[in-house]
Write a structure and sequence with these properties.
CATH superfamily: CNF1/YfiH-like putative cysteine hydrolases
Number of domains: 1
Number of strands: 16
Helix content: 10-25%
CATH architecture: 4-Layer Sandwich
Shape: globular
Strand order of the largest sheet: 1-2-16-7-3-5
């Protein structure tokens, strides 16, 4: 679809495209959310500081942006949770019977510092072991376009680095698996190079140094 990608998950989640506009713009974001039958006053966002911090939110935080974190978790399934991105990896996680859910903004720093592990632990604290979690890796920059320095080899090892191209997808997938999560789904398109009718489909910081952002929401 031109404006939004939705994956089959039995619970609604989606990622906007560039054609829907800059999701950091409140007016455009609200217009987009309403077009998807999502009440903007029911959405909780995070300010995203490239950390490993995830916070538990309740109905009291509806319509708010939560400071100093890169992940949100709730046991109120009626809430919508969202993160912005323009190459980093948005990850949606939900219990198999849909009692709790989380959303994560995972750049390389968040992945390195353990945001997936921290999110999985949050599920465990609410009584949901890894085998009861679905995880979905939303659109992000793929290995085809993610050039990095050799320093990444020291941090993550050589298996994720080839020809100075780093595999964020593989890193996220491997960390989910190491946490014991087996129901893992992923979007195959790259935010930097994927196109729709000869126009770029997603915002990409690596491509354009843009401050515009996509929105992934559950």
């Amino acid at each position: 679809m031109k404006y939004v990608f939705v994956d089959a998950f039995h619970i609604n989640h989606l990622t906007s495209t560039r054609f829907a506009g800059d999701m950091k713009d409140e007016q455009k974001r609200n217009e987009f959310l309403l077009s998807q039958n999502i009440d903007p006053q029911n959405l909780v966002l995070t300010d995203q500081i490239h950390s490993n911090i995830i916070k538990h939110v309740t109905k009291n935080e509806a319509g708010k942006t939560i400071d100093s974190c890169d992940g949100l978790f709730t046991d109120d399934i009626s809430l919508n949770l969202g993160v912005f991105s323009a190459d980093c990896v948005p990850i949606v996680m939900v219990s198999t019977k849909y009692q709790v859910k989380a959303i994560v903004h995972a750049g390389w720093k968040g992945l390195a510092f353990g945001i997936i592990e921290n999110t999985t632990e949050m599920f465990a604290q609410f009584g949901f072991p890894p085998y009861e979690i679905h995880a979905y890796i939303a659109p992000h920059i793929r290995k085809c376009c993610y050039e990095v320095s050799k320093d990444f080899e020291k941090i993550f090892g050589a298996d994720l680095l080839k020809d100075n191209k780093f595999d964020l997808t593989g890193l996220a997938r491997n960390k989910l698996k190491k946490c014991g999560i087996r129901r893992i789904y992923e979007h195959k398109l790259c935010t930097k190079c994927s196109k729709y009718e000869d126009e770029f489909l997603f915002f990409s910081y690596r491509r354009d140094k843009t401050q515009e952002r996509l929105l992934t929401v559950i």
